[in-house]
Design goal:
alpha+beta, Butyryl-CoA Dehydrogenase, subunit A, domain 3, binds flavin-adenine dinucleotide, three-stranded mixed sheet, Butyryl-CoA Dehydrogenase, subunit A, domain 2, 13 helices, globular, Butyryl-Coa Dehydrogenase, subunit A, domain 1, four-stranded antiparallel sheet
Length: 391
């Protein structure tokens, strides 16, 4: 895929994203974040930029970007305002599940509409009682003629209010051993042509510390009918594998969001440290501040390099669960570290809602939780380390 994109193409895309982020995201970020207002205008701009089809193959009307270029786009967006990236990031995780695991009929039916943003979605795995332990989900889908009937509750589902489709992980066999063999994934078009939720679907918006302005909700399914033709891959029992199989790209994406937050916070701090004076000189001339900036800048670069390494392996179709895990773990922690240090550099003004840095501070922690918590990342890395170094 990546050979379709020359260095000039890459630079042109990144330049376009750079201008868009500075001109359209930066000016509205604080107001939308503080008031938790969905940035509907940005959705239209994302359609024009092709972002809803960024990683969808060109055969299906997408741009077919390699992970390496996609990650750079995500870093740039998150370095200005992380939240709107979720509108296309979660959507593309759903698209990737269909592209990787769907039948040819499902790819033809859904991907072209997803690539242009007509169908916009996300992925519904987590339940009130099951996040890390996905095999413990309780939402069920029971076959009824040509349909399945879904019952259950999902929580923390991004894009579930403003989007119109979800990939939903369910149990089709509650007694399967091991439990993951009883899981399946469905594409659920959640709204009718008028934009109303299908009978039986209710959503309840969650109020969040950060990642605001983007809809994250609890979604309840009560006897919701879904065509059997929407069972991803056409076969029951594959849901868990389909969900975790996409996590490498998902982890590179979350790593890029963490790296973007780290970069954005460091840039804000570097600028502020030159403007703010104490004891007759800019604070960037005090060694205590230089030590912070030096460490922050180093983490930003290290995060970027780990992401590049993971993305290059992913694009070369090599196994990269360890590399993607390292990138996700390190870059998300770098986001938290740099936002935290930037807060100290801003001193009392870090607490003012007039400065962007408090938003970076509130947004950063999410990257340590999503796409597999950082506790789980270290366990995955350690298991891989042992597997790759047998005695
Ligand atoms: C803003 C936001 C948006 C989200 N968007 C989505 C979305 O679009 N779709 C979706 O499906 N989900 C989404 N999530 C949910 C997210 O993926 C889960 O919160 C995450 O997977 C963790 O699950 P949990 O919250 O149930 O934590 P738990 O699984 O209860 O974990 C709690 C703690 O225990 C640790 N832990 C658990 N098991 C182990 C173990 N075996 N070994 C060591 N430590 C362990 C965890 O690392 C964590 O520290 C979102 C969450 C948030 C906050």
């Amino acid at each position: 895929m990546s050979e379709l994109w020359s260095k000039e193409d890459e630079l042109a895309i990144l330049d376009m994203i750079d201008k868009w982020a500075e001109q359209e995201l930066r000016p509205i970020a604080q107001e939308h974040d503080h008031n938790d207002i969905y940035p509907a205008d940005l959705v239209e701009q994302m359609k024009e930029l092709g972002l809803f089809g960024a990683t969808i193959g060109q055969d299906w009307g997408g741009m077919g970007l390699p992970a390496s270029i996609y990650a750079k786009i995500v870093i740039k967006v998150a370095s200005v305002w992380m939240a709107p990236g979720g509108i296309f990031n979660s959507h593309l995780i759903q698209a990737s599940a269909i592209e990787r695991c769907g039948t040819e009929e499902q790819k033809a039916r859904f991907l072209p509409r997803m690539a242009i943003g007509e169908l916009r979605g996300g992925i519904a795995l987590t339940e009130p009682n099951a996040g890390t332990d996905l095999q413990a989900i309780r939402t069920t889908a029971v076959r009824d003629g040509d349909d399945y009937i879904i019952n259950g509750s999902k929580t923390w589902i991004t894009n579930s209010i403003n989007g119109n489709s979800l990939a939903v992980l369910v149990k089709t066999d509650l007694n399967a051993v091991p439990a993951h063999k009883g899981t399946s994934m469905f594409i659920v078009e959640t709204k009718d042509a008028d934009g109303n939720f299908l009978p039986g679907i209710t959503v309840s918006k969650l109020t969040k510390l950060g990642y605001r302005a983007i809809d994250t909700a609890e979604v309840t399914f009560e006897n919701v009918r879904v065509p059997a033709a929407n069972l991803i891959g056409g076969e029951e029992g594959k849901g868990f594998v389909q969900a975790v199989g996409g996590l490498e790209l998902g982890r590179i994406n979350v790593a890029a969001r963490g790296a973007g937050i780290a970069r954005g916070a460091t840039e804000l701090a570097a600028r502020y440290a030159q403007e703010r004076q104490t004891f007759g000189k800019p604070i960037c001339q005090h060694q205590a501040i230089q030590l912070k900036l030096g460490e922050m800048a180093t983490k930003v670069e290290a995060a970027r390099l780990l992401i590049e390494q993971a993305a290059a392996k992913y694009d070369a179709h090599e196994r990269c669960d360890m590399e993607a895990g390292m990138a996700k773990y390190f870059a998300s922690e770098a986001g938290v570290f740099c936002a935290n240090e930037a807060m100290r550099i801003f001193g009392g003004y870090s607490y003012s809602v007039e400065y962007d840095i408090e938003r970076f501070y509130r947004d950063a922690m999410l990257m340590c939780i999503g796409e597999g918590t950082n506790e789980m990342q270290r366990i995955i890395i350690a298991k891989q380390l042992i597997e790759r170094n047998p005695v």
